[in-house]
Structure prediction request, 549 residues.
Amino acid sequence: MSARRWGMLRSGMTIGVAMSVVAAGLTTQAAATPAVAATGLTLSVDVSAARHAISPDIYGLNGADPAFAAEIGMPVARWGGNASSRYNFKNHTYNTGSDWYFENIVAGVGNTLESFVTINRNRGTKQIVTVPMIGWVAKDSPSSHPFACGFPATRFPAQDGFDPWDANCGNGKLDGTDITGADPTDTSIPADASFAGEMASYLVSRFGTAARGGVRIYELDNEPVLWSSTHRDVHPQAVTYDELGSKGTATAAAIKAADPGAAVLGPSGWGYCEWVASGSDGCAPGADAAAHGGLNLSQWYLKNMKDFGDAHGGRRFLNYFDQHYYPQISGGKDPEANALRLRSTRSLWDPTYVEESWIGPSGVNAPPLQFIRTMKAWVAQYYPGTKVAITEYNWGALDDINGALAQADVLGVFGREGLDLATMWGEPQPTQPGAYSFRMYRNYDGAGSRFGDVSVSATSSDQGQLALYAAQRSSDKALTLMIVNKTGDNLTSSLSIAGFRGRGTAQRYTYSTADLTSIVRNDDLATTQPSINATYPANSITLLVLPRR
Prediction:
């Protein structure tokens, strides 16, 4: 996590609304309140079309309340963020970087790397462990070193701010400008790729290889192009193509030598600028790109990893192409921010959606991001077979129904678009609406039932009003349909289903403003005909489960 990001944050029950279903000549009515029959708004599903597996790893978190993690069967967790860039597994010490006065901190009991792996291993959660690649790791605990922060007052007495609990540690700025001349050895010791290899070997000795229940995935540091900002006390230089490439291949090789079966994930860029450009180029391919075949940073990174593998007997050294994604929202919950939050999910896939921020016409004028589709296209061109991941993202407002709607939409997009892995940063508290978005996919009935694991064709005539996602469950062949009403009106729409023979009823679960403390099980719906006319409550997430005949 970094402060800059993509520009956001560091960031028989009825439900009292109309519901009408017509199927096999049988109509079921619930309590009546006005509903809007949206003109031309239709939903359609074809179970035989666009079938592909949904990776369970898209429902991951960087961390979570233990009970909530167990409740949703959290599939993957990540040890990462800025502090991981200088974490020293030998003394359990990390450096906070610019997040908090560049201080060395000893990880407390329960917060060590070993604790993270143990907890997640015991609950059956796959682990992602970030290994340092910046070139430095933290020294021993502060009690052993007089300069345990990057910009100590004893060396830089004039600074804009100092830690209120340790007046010797400053923020490394004077009159708003970065201070230069820090001594990396005040806080850190050199650590090259061999350190990462030692770290992986140590974890193998403690927990076994990836193939035998050990750490499954290693991440090549965190947001490297921001090192010159987040860890500027030890790495003030802008990151170039060559530095990122050489450190990435050397570190990946060291990890694979320690555990050939472990996966490697990178480069975990902070946002749009790192997606396309190196630190020396800024926010658009420039001289550094020109010196590397004119490719943007992501394209060249993938090609460089492939070339390295080809030169070493065709071995694969990068398993996941990973980036972080934070939408351009202030984090507010005013009507304008709420509307933008729901629209901005389109940036993950929609070729017609133009960014409404500095990324768009008002700034760098980037073309429509189509974030997941673009990443997959680059992989297909430059390093086929590499999986695609987003190990940090957050649409915000998780304490509000608006954030829950956006999160449910995002999880649906992840599955439909074929993302391989995702871990949210800034995960919701178990009682917050955002947590119910995960429950709708991972534990909608409180008994562990889940959304389907095989995505099928699902089309809404207006995804901005009613977003639709469909998947079939491999275990019982049931069809699961997730419908997100992003509007403030109860919307009635027809839904056609092709290629599926159901038992005649659909289970119906709803999360809405009618009850923000639970997912409501509504009356079952008759569905013996391939067309359903239903009303979806305003600002709601509805799951229909159709058992197969």
Remarks:
- The longest strand covers residues 515-526.
